[in-house]
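Lab notebook, bench 4. We co-purified these components, and the gel suggests they stay together. Before we commit to crystallization screens, I want a quick structural picture of the whole thing.
Request: model the full complex, all chains together.
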Amino acid sequence: MQKEQLSDKEAIFLIIVFVIGSSLITGVGGEADNDAWIAVVVGLIMVMPMILVFSRILSLFQGKDLFDILTLTLGKRISKIVAIMYIWYAFHLGALVLRNFGEFINIVAMPETPMFVPLFCLGLLCIVAVRLGIEVMGRTTAYFLPILFLIIVIVQLLAIPQLHLNYLKPILGSGLIPVLKGGFSALSFPFAETVLFIGVFGSLKTKKSPFKVYYWGILISALIIIITTIRNLAVLGNMRDSFYFPSYAAVGSIKIGNFIERIEVSVAFIFVFGVFIKSSICLLVACKGIGKMFNLKDYRSIVIQTGLLMIYLSYIIYDNSMMMKYWAFKVYPFYAFPFQVIIPITIWIFAEYKARKNKMNCFSSKCP
Amino acid sequence: MKKTRIPLLALMILIISTVTTGCWNYREVDKMSIVAGVAVDKGQKDKFQITVEIIQVSAGKDTNMTSKTITMEGKTMFDAARNIISISGKRLYWSHAKVIILSKEIASQGVTEVIEWYNRDSETREDVRILISKGTSAKEVFAGQGSTDDIKSFVLEEMIKNQVSLSKAPMMDILKFNIESKTQGISTIIPTVNLLKKDGKMYPQIMGTAIIKNDKLVGFLDGEETKDLTFIRDEVKGGVLIEEMQANDVHTLVSLEIFKNKTKVTPVSDDQDIEINLNIDTTVAIDEINSSETIFNEEGRRELEESAENTLKERIESLIKKIQSEYNADIFGFGAKLRENDAQVWNDVGNNWDEVFKDLKVNVQTAVHIKNSAMLSKSSKEGD
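Here is the predicted assembly.
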């Protein structure tokens, strides 16, 4: 079988959609109230060193994915444990994201439909996408992203009459601490979640620096998130944090003339596509990990099983949406911290050490 | 491969066409009652008595839209809203509701508990306008006569929308109300509606403001005072200023149409003293005049501008005095402005803002510019 390949552009697009997908609608940095947009900037600054770490790991082991790298750096036994942890993280994150979508549909559009139905529909789509492989997902994203951009820009422009920029004031009114807290939560959701791309970018076409891909992907998506956060704040003011889906509520208040109104479905479109890509990536990484664990030839044979399990997990993971909000903003940053920061840094230190120790032994597949 | 393809395709079409026939819980238009507006009164038995105005579409040569009202009581808003099914037989559809009218009694008990459900439910929308019925009960507003449309809620909404060229009632929807009532240092306002008796018929009229302090109705302002209030809140988009003139010993009135207004509120604080500087900059046009030529020369114009400035200043100052002494509710949002500009000072005084506001010194500066005199360059009346 031919090796799957991903061009730089597609990889950047994947990162953008992965990052903005669910965060655009659930909102980022809720702790910081009307300084949430500053919290996003803080989160962006915080994630920059992590990007360096991620891309350094990737360029040390060109053409390898996360689970190969684990084996190469940490040895057989420990790497198995860490690999299980990452499989769980990817699997769990995919379920969380799916559940976000389910809650969204259930609260906003179809309150009487059992939540399992939207979860199952989207989960099925993810299974199909992952079976088709990363290459297909990359191209799909490259096809859809311009449409998403167009929607975001148009909605942004239409919202201008509703903006009250004085809602953003006072800037840093309650001090730095809430902003830092919000920044930390913005780091874990959504920026540093891109750690999962270490498991995907083994198939990058150009073997140069994955840093470029990470850098541009994160930067563009952060810009989009900052702009939408400012818009949500300027439209909803201090009510922003009360909404589960602030973007949806903010866009819902757009009213131009008597005919351009109730266009919040456009936001739902972005959300659906973002969730689709995000949980597909998670599922892909989880399947790849499981495949490597059991020395399978191809991860595709276990996609359906893992995917269905993911759907079930997402169905039972929360009792209600209050729990979702509590988990996403209060627990998740601390839960995800080891996966996003501690373990990657450990891997990186080990990798540098090994690379220095046996300089003639090159790990990358391209080496002679 | 080719043999299996056609049955497979047929199977796919069959599955898709049976599965995607519609939403899970879809509702036909004729199976629901579309709500145009809702009025909330204090109930006799239960806490809330709500009256909904329902749109009735009758087909015929022309589609006719009329409305009818249903009244029902309930322990909560949602309870009452669902109790209506027991009369109407159809479930109500809330997304198209335009206005929510609160009676005076229920608003003095608390506004938030009435609109909380409206704010939370996913079918209702945040852009619905709030009104307080001043003279009568809320439900009687729907019993009045619609002057332009049969559906009273739509008429009311038009009235609120077109306040931009009248400025005698503020704009307030649920979202804005919530934001303002959550903001520290500002008391909210709600436009009032009352019934006007004309030729034996009752017409609803939107004019004036209800003052909400700490979520409870405390008082009313009339239309003229509301105009001054919107000046301070920087919400003036249009309207008329009437100016008395003394020209050639003849007493005359001049109408000035407001085109643009910019109000700047700057809190100044040193140590414990807080003052508010209020700069109002208005551009107007002479739209009606009944005097001789004097007004059209430089001197006369300057005189008119000055006298308009003074009148506006006096009126605004007296309104601020009145609010400070009678209601002590910061409906101008001076506190919120202070918080926006200087959070540190606000942290010191915010807790007893009521007392600070009571004796707050406000320096009013007004500037009126006349930009033109509409279509005519001279007075219509010949000077003698």
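Chain A has one domain: 8-347. Worth comparing against the SEC data before the next meeting. Chain A has a mean pLDDT of 88.
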